[in-house]
């Protein structure tokens, strides 16, 4: 019996230059055939089979039209998408604005599908020729960015689906660049949709997605694109094959979330003291093996969002370790150094608990380094490592003193700051909230966010962004430390034009709509 | 009759308690299935506040009075209605279990049996040849290998035989493009993939059987019927097997029963290291994702099968040991 | 825990547990040919212990085990003196190979592997002994009262033991570990104890049952002794070797369990133990970076420590059952 | 023709981690074809060891350190492996001491025979079943046993099977190692009969190993006496009986007596008619203390009460489903007046121990009442039982298992003193020493510190008796208190019991199947058969002139040396 080995199957990855081996979808350990784009258990590549109206580059917020060719916001409460013509579903049916409306109606009927919460933003929706006009519940400029992410499904097939929440959509029909090829529990393929409206931009004829993508597999099996944190990437991935490259841009900010409902964290001076006490370079180095940079206090992802950076912030928001400054901040907050301990007015040494999810090793290393550094300013930090689900719960319920957390990275300035600072998410400790976990509340900031929500004036938007950065810098509602990397591993052997620091047109993420950007931009090598 | 009724009563009580524990223990874990799902999403980047509500609505995580939930749960268990998995939404738990079960049953089951048979034989040999090389070799090797952590053995095999020498595939239960079927070719492929996980389990579990059998066999070797058989000039082989080993194996059967019952639980660490799509991996997924329905079904299955296996061993015991018969 | 422990009570019989048939060989000084009174000097508890130690020592396998264990114990106790650096000192180069400064190289986080290995012995030894002790204690208390009492109380204990025998150990550990999040070493010990006592209880029960039918137990009743005293003064001392055996068995299981939980990332990953070293090694691709020492050394240490306990058990077995004393058969 | 010739045979046990023991020293003797000899000696004298060596079964840690065993011209002492195995057919065979356990519990009897036939291939396949039937019939068993498992047979049947199995080898030398010790007196008798008959028919050479001089003298023509590994006497049975040469043999013989005799005499004890008198030196302590004369007054002044059983019955639930309940005791009535000594005799399973359990409150009667004075024993609960035990104490059959091997003599005696006597500290200790003195274990201080394994069997039994006396009981139940002791120790213990009873006025229920012991220490007797009393009366009267057929049968089973010579 001729038993094929792993390699037999996998090195097809581009021998002819048009087939791509992709580590984008992990079976656990095998694949379920679920291509329902709204299902949490969907195959990751469902977003290559279906398309949204627009795709946002989460790194800098740049938007690329997909199923909509244009959008317009005549007033802050209305969004008009002009739907692309000459698009067909992969079964040959024509794609129409009615499909778009059908999709939104579907989400309204089944809130479980509405993972982006669009119906919290939309009042009504109507078709006007090739346009889809959306009336919002109020003035809301950033709403468009959320609404346009909605994945559009074909009315002619989905209208008959009885329960779309449990529908597994085994034979997906979409408008996207790829259609499902062969599906087996250990591996499946996507074939290029030759009728795709921009088929000329799609270089890879076939995508191969194995279920097992251990780091060992990734290094050995000649992947073209993988998303994985690789320890010692130069000696592993890069050394493994000619043409292997990597790009680890920041995808979010890892920060200390202080529980602002309790002392001493309710005192900004104390938070600033913590901020000054940290050597962020060292933390970033320890946590992510030096593959990411330290984060400043502006709340922006740099260099991605450089364009929005408030030029008035000292050092571009970066805060260097300054123990003396830290001590004076602490003093302002009522804490003094006594020997090598930081004590309150009653002389009680300060002891804090830092929560970090168990098993998230980079965070843990960062947290351990924070522990060490805070010990140097006389604060005793105990690590609390709940399991991820419990961590999530503690974070949401405000059940922590100091917690590791992340924010940002949606590509939308408004979204990033709103989730972090808006009191609309404010809940008492013990009640679940979905954002603003540190429970920050400031009327001025709320006003800024409200204005940012309604203004169409781009200059004003930028001004508000500056002001929000100042709030972040001066109030320190969270203490940013380092960037969470996006761990893109690429091979130039078969395809070129991968996103990179020089050409950051997309993030290296293999999920959501991002691969649409990547796969319509790369070119066959040679 | 009263005895049997009592025994059955106790069995059912144990089952009920295990099932109840299955219900309450996971729910004591901090965090909900939704939290687990969000925590998983959060590893890839920011999660939109709307997602939580959507996931909650979609999974249909039960809320409300825990006692009502418990009663419903008991009813479901009785009717073998295990519901839908949270982790693998919207797959039904029964489907998931039925897909994973054959892999585990065949791979872990076969190894368990092989380990028992081989270990027992080696134990017999060691006891019979006590104090010689044929004793110390299996005994010492067994002592050492049974002290290996499962996952470590798995990693070493993976590294040397899979990665360095590339003799065996390093993950999965069959080749990438294969779809499970019953063709010879597929079976050969599956067997090839099962080698490393199977060898791992074999290496680490063999020692226990060797030592156990050796100990009991040394005891029976001193029994009078063995001496008498020798005095009657039976061939050494007959004395060793039909007299000493035949009696020594009985106490070890209990352990074998538990082991066989445990087979349906798979071999969590090994399956995880080798990405083997068996029940152990499923169990790992269930437990780490707080997938109550899946966890409950698996725990129930394991509990029942251990109980049943024990029962079968009891019956078998009666057959093998006439003293308990009549 | 690893599955080994899950299975210690499940998949495989523990090598060190005596057969459940409950042979009545415990410690009876008048066993076998001992009918003939051997008049020796009066024995104090110390000489009894001394003799036991002597018997264990006289078995070569057990001797090797004791020496091995002593090495690990010394490493654990004197870790600060023996280790060249602090185990969490991450100020060295990343993923270095062996050198004079770092004989076993450094981790990807820049910690000295040798120092971690030496400090790691503390956790394993501590977990092994404390959890082994805890599990044995519960097994003794429950197993003996189960064996001695009849009727309802015995049924209740029987029920609990059965329950803990049928529930799959490793998943239960994971669930418990998640519940007792962040408890560190104490949590691990607790979890291992909770899931590890049942088998021992069963073995001790059958031994208690066979002892309780001995004349000297009836005689104690005729001497007006309370049940409590009978169990703990008359029966218990006669089971020392069995209990010692259970202890070493449970300790072995505990060591493997700790490593398994740590490997799954359910222990305290910030604490340096052999299990967490393996976790980090796996996590930072030791295989890929050629740092196979990271993977090999901690596992070997676990295996050796666990082996040492099993080896000692060869000697303990001989204590309670003269037939098992090492020697030539035929 | 000389079949077996043993020259200067020595055997040592060399256990690991312990001192070597020379179990047989320089044994020299030879056996003629067809001879039937006895090998006697006390426990541990090396009889079994010698028997094993003669049949090529000596194995580690035993080692033949010197000498030769010539069987039919070949030296088998250093034969092993396949050569030895071949010799076993038509050569030498052995029936083990614990013949009860000599059968593989998981193989049918038929398979045992089949295994032997297969091993030696001396019986053609087709004839094997037939031959097996022949063999079991020879030992007076029905052919149907061939399909049964050992567990389904009684001890006597198993012992016969073992003999038949040994016979299936057509041995020329057959060693019977205590073939009847574990058996009931009646069964014992029957098995011995079978052995003797077989030997006569088949005319093989036989060695009967036993510690029971009576049995040996009764059945064999020549006797070897072993003492501490040395063969101290070798001669015809009749001669040894009449004129023992060795001191040890003399001692053995002096402890043998016929319970039916008019006067029964043992060193230290002499019983004539119903009268008992102490001859020679009384046990050290007895008589030195101020003995209460009336006998009805306890040392502590408590009034002695009678044990009264009225129509007592005990039915155990059926051991297995579908079987009949076990009637262990059926309508038994008797009274033990204060100071009385009552013997309870009967074959195994006749319900003797059950009655003991009923009197001590360990079991409750299913019919009738058991009373101690005014107390209804059957209705007592925990506390009441504890109080009862102050009055009713037990002397156990096996002194080896009645003492916790880990506790010193002092501890064992201290417990009842503390629990019942309410004494503490020095007082308690003084009482312990006093007790030791009473049972004649002097120097008391030294004995108090010893652990059981440092005592001889007789000394242990004395400790057990002392413990029973510790709380100054009214009634002592002695369940076969000497059956596990060597003859040499037996008399001493019996004398002690007898003396104590006389002196302290305790009532004694003496349970035994040994009629000689019953004769020696009691004045009344009760014969039990299947739970029912079949005969009662004065001990001497009943034993000398039995009326019930069962009693006659029991008495018949008592070996009568010289009977074989008839
Ligand atoms: N396996 C052994 N190891 C060490 N010593 C032994 C062993 N077996 C017997 N002995 C010793 O050898 C001596 C003789 O034992 P043996 O069994 O031959 O006595 P016996 O006369 O048959 O006694 P019994 O009447 O109790 O059967 C005793 O002192 C005994 O303690
Ligand atoms: N606990 C019990 N359950 C059931 N049957 C029992 C129990 N104890 C004793 N018997 C039965 O009761 C009968 C009498 O037993 P008992 O022990 O009183 O006999 P015994 O005269 O003391 O015999 P031995 O001389 O062998 O000691 C036997 O048939 C025995 O099998
Ligand atoms: Mg003997
Ligand atoms: Mg009895």
UniProtKB/TrEMBL annotation, chain B:
Alphabetic keyword roster: Membrane, Transmembrane, Transmembrane helix, Transport
Primary location recorded for the protein, binned into one broad class: membrane
Annotated compartments: Cell membrane; Membrane
Membrane among keywords: yes
Highest rank taxon of the organism: Bacteria
Family annotation (Pfam families): BPD_transp_1 (PF00528)
Coiled coil ranges: none
GO CC annotation, single: plasma membrane
Transmembrane segments: 103-128, 149-170, 190-211, 253-274, 294-320
Domain ABC transmembrane type-1 per the UniProt entry, residue ranges: 101-313
Single GO biological process annotation from the record: transmembrane transport
Membrane topology: Multi-pass membrane protein
Similarity field: Belongs to the binding-protein-dependent transport system permease family.
PANTHER family in UniProt: OLIGOPEPTIDE TRANSPORT SYSTEM PERMEASE PROTEIN
The protein's name in its UniProt record: Nickel transport system permease protein NikB
Organism, as annotated: Occultella aeris
Lineage of producing organism: Bacteria, Bacillati, Actinomycetota, Actinomycetes, Micrococcales
From TrEMBL, chain C:
Domain ABC transmembrane type-1: 125-313
Primary location group: membrane
Spans traversing the lipid bilayer: 64-83, 123-144, 156-179, 185-204, 235-257, 263-281, 293-316
GO cellular component, one term: plasma membrane
GO terms of molecular function: dipeptide transmembrane transporter activity
Membrane-topology annotation of the record: Multi-pass membrane protein
Keyword Manganese set for record: no
UniProt-annotated stretches for the region Disordered: 1-31
Keywords, alphabetical: Cell membrane, Membrane, Transmembrane, Transmembrane helix, Transport
Matches recorded under Gene3D superfamilies: MetI-like
PROSITE patterns in the cross-refs: ABC_TM1 (PS50928)
Keyword Kinase set for record: no
Cell compartments where the protein resides: Cell membrane
Pfam families reported for this sequence: BPD_transp_1, OppC_N
Family in the record: Belongs to the binding-protein-dependent transport system permease family.
Protein name: Dipeptide transport system permease protein DppC
Source species: Occultella aeris
Automatic annotation (TrEMBL), chain D:
Source species taxonomy: Bacteria, Bacillati, Actinomycetota, Actinomycetes, Micrococcales
Domain of life: Bacteria
PROSITE patterns (alphabetical): ABC_TRANSPORTER_1 (PS00211), ABC_TRANSPORTER_2 (PS50893)
Annotated ABC transporter domain residues: 4-253, 307-555
GO biological process: peptide transport; transmembrane transport
Pfam families: ABC_tran (PF00005), oligo_HPY (PF08352)
Protein name, per record: Glutathione import ATP-binding protein GsiA
Keywords carried by this UniProt record: ATP-binding, Hydrolase, Nucleotide-binding, Transport
